[in-house]
Amino acid sequence: MAEPTPSSLPADRLVAAASADGSVRVTALTLTHAVEEARTAHATLPVATAALGRAMAAGLLLAHALLKEPDRLTLRLLGDGPLGAVVVDASPAGDVRGYVAQPRVMLPPTPAGKLDVGRAVGRRGVLHVSHDSGIGRPYTGSVPLVSGEVGEDVAHYLTTSLQVPSAVAVGVRVGTGGVVLGAAGVLVQRLPGADEAAVADVEAALSRLGPVSQVAAAGGTAQDLLAAALAHLGHGAVAEVPLAWRCTCSRERTARLLAALGAETLDGMIADDGGAELTCHFCGAVYRFDAAELKALGAESNRSAGDDEGRPVHGPDGPAPPEP
User: Fold this and answer.
1) Residue ranges of the chain whose pLDDT lies below 50
2) CATH for 10-245?
3) What is the tens place of the pLDDT at every residue in 150-179?
């Protein structure tokens, strides 16, 4: 029987609802299309695809559970495994982007025949979670990795750093040729005042359902995952968010970053390389600037460095930094 293709599966969605008794909140998503786009953008091999896809799912679950627009959340898994850093940027609005430092890593499967994400990420290291509202310094929380499997590490962060007893299941199914066949995630959080067994009861329901990636690969939706998790408890109103692989980089933003380097640095780039080439870590887009463009950006930098009389222009707290 032929494997399903991502194009035949339902659109990526996130749904969330509290149980009818107010004991838990469940957030569920399917992310097959976005993870396949990430795989294509970064040419990841299967174990890197699985690690990045799990991190993308976790980042979106956390962003929706913890933030409000226009805040953004960054998740960094810095383990001692061969993948190096796994970095994801996500928003409550449903856009996500990410990368793996070493996307071409190959490892043998686990004894159970699964992709060895834990070994690839590393079982020793740190998980950093930061969120930024664009006002003031971003908040960052960090916990040691407990397994490198991503889901367990994020649950440990929520329970230890935020004191919110939680369970997290994230998974990616990779097929022949490395194509993503299914990607999904579920976050279960105990609500204040609820019995400690509430999260365990929902975990048990999800365990009976089987791997979340398998549900997604079979055409299951985020709503299906939510309904299965809360089958015995019922639920209230459901929030729904469309999800997409989307990067915020652009040629204009890259040009502003170059201009912020100053005319002297840009002249050095012209002398050494005749231009500049910058690659976005998150999506792989390449932006090239020739010598004439760098000269123009250098002139712009000189103009913005002073007023009409040549004096430096300062804000109330010193020089204003360039917009990234």
Assistant:
1) 306-324
2) 3.55.30.10
3) 999 999 999 999 998 899 999 999 998 999
Token duo for residue 238: 């459901």
The pLDDT of residue 210 = 87
Burial of 253 (0-12, 13-18, 19+ CB in 10 A): middle
Q: Where are the domains of the chain?
A: 10-245, 251-304
Query: How many beta carbons lie within 10 A of that of residue 322, not counting itself?
Result: 13
Q: What's residue 303's pLDDT?
A: 75
One-character DSSP codes across 24-84: EEEEEEE-HHHHHHHHHHHT--HHHHHHHHHHHHHHHHHHHHH--TT-EEEEEEEESSTT-
Q: For 219-253, what is each residue's pLDDT tens digit?
A: 999 999 999 999 888 898 999 999 999 998 999 99
Domain 251-304 has CATH 3.90.1280.10: yes
Cβ-defined contacts of 87-92 (< 8 Å, 24+) = 87/55, 87/281, 87/282, 88/52, 88/55, 88/56, 88/58, 88/59, 89/59, 89/282, 90/56, 90/59, 90/60, 90/62, 90/63, 91/63, 91/67, 92/63, 92/64, 92/67, 92/68, 92/241
Q: Do domains 10-245 and 251-304 have the same CATH topology?
A: no
Please tell me the predicted confidence (pLDDT) of residue 176: 87
Helix (H, G, I), strand (E, B) or coil at 137: coil
